[in-house]
Amino acid sequence: MSRTAIISEVDYEAQGLQRGFLRLFHSVHRSAYGYIPIPIVVIQNGTGPTALFISGTHGDEYEGQVALCNLARALTPEAIQGRVILLPAANLPAAVAGMRTSPLDDGNLNRLFPGDPLGGPTTQIAHYIEHELVSRADIVVDLHSGGSSLHYVPAALMMQDDDNPGRQAKLVDALKAFASPVAYVGHSQPGQGAGRTTEAAARRAGKLALGTELGGSGTVTADALRVAERGVRNILAHMGITAPETAEPGPVRILDVAGQDYFVYAPGTGLFEPLAEPGDSVVAGQPAARVHTPETPWAPAETVHFRHDGFVLCKRTPGRIMRGDCLFHLGTDLDW
Ligand SMILES: [Zn+2]
Asked: What is the predicted pLDDT for the residue at 115?
């Protein structure tokens, strides 16, 4: 496969602090030879592990972007041993637009790995992250949230890796080290972009990968931001890049999200009346939501039920729904 056409203003092998842009060339009517400037920060001191932190993979997920802006200002070479790479607005056009996908090509960055250096802008970004950044990292942390359409109990997550027990054990250690009060384990499946995500890129390279779902609803809460910032600091310490944190990481409730029956989808088009909230415990058969049709207010409301016992990890935010929209998903306790 061809090499990337993106030019980096930073040198990944240099010592010290570097701030600059990845130049993603995008020739359009208003700018013939122009580039999209994707900000990147590289901090290196001596030799040691490399941690890659990414946010803005989805542009409408803001908690991680705020956390990495704060870190980009605060972190100094003197404070670390090793290397930290920050990519706070990975899909910059989407981040600037406050959208999940890029307004340039409708690209969902977390569904386009391993990317293509000859593809559209979002596909080129995926290729660059997989081949130029993940390849240099020991751990990749991609900070997501529920975005505009979902709201989560702030959580870190890992994907189950049955093929590599050694990697799996290190993932569990990292998940506990992140120390979000609630965390969950996902399973690679089509609904979650199997093979096409940042996590998949890290897995292909044999690198550790954590994700988060930090809140959402297209906003930032102080609580979710605290979980994000503490988690990022905890991972730096866990990897030996910064000095150990003095505070104990605290207990982590680890949940399993095993399959499609953990998800509740809208059974029809209309108005969403939720019958549960994030953080609730529910049982199989319990009503999850009613769907109303205000256009015909006397028409019977349709009820959809939870198909599994569990803890409600997230809920849809917008009130209008169509068949196929995710309304909730659950997790069940793991004794890890
Ligand atoms: Zn996301």
From this structure: 97
Interval between CA 266 and ligand 1 midpoint (Å): 20
Q: How far is the CA of 292 from the centre of ligand 1 (A)?
A: 28
How far, in Å, from the CA of 150 to the mean position of ligand 1?
10
1 falls in which pLDDT band (50, 70, 90)?
low
Alpha carbon distance 86, 84 (integer Å): 7
pLDDT tens column, 192-225: 778 899 999 999 999 999 999 999 999 999 999 9
| Domain-located, residue 1 | no
Q: Which domain holds residue 317?
A: 266-333
* pLDDT above 60 for 243: yes
Neighbours of ion ligand 1 (CB under 5 A): 58, 61, 144
Question: 143 C-alpha vs ligand 1 centroid, how far in Å?
Answer: 8
- Count structural domains, the chain: 2
155 pairs with which residues across the strands? 182, 213
Asked if the structure places residue 322 within a domain, the reply is yes
pLDDT (tens digit per residue) in 53-63 = 999 999 999 99
List b or e across 198-214, with b for residues whose CB sees 16 or more CB atoms inside 10 angstroms. Answer: bbbbbbeeebbbbbbbb
DSSP structural state of residue 191:
G
How far, in Å, is the centroid of ligand 1 from the Cα of 58? Answer: 5
Asked if pLDDT for residue 190 goes beyond 80, the answer is no
CATH number of the domain residue 278 falls in: 2.40.50.100
Query: To 10 degrees, the CA torsion angle through 126, 219, 155, 182?
Result: 180
CA of 280 to the centre of ligand 1 (A): 23
Residue 159 Cα to ligand 1 midpoint, Å, equals 15
Residues 49 and 192 in one domain: yes
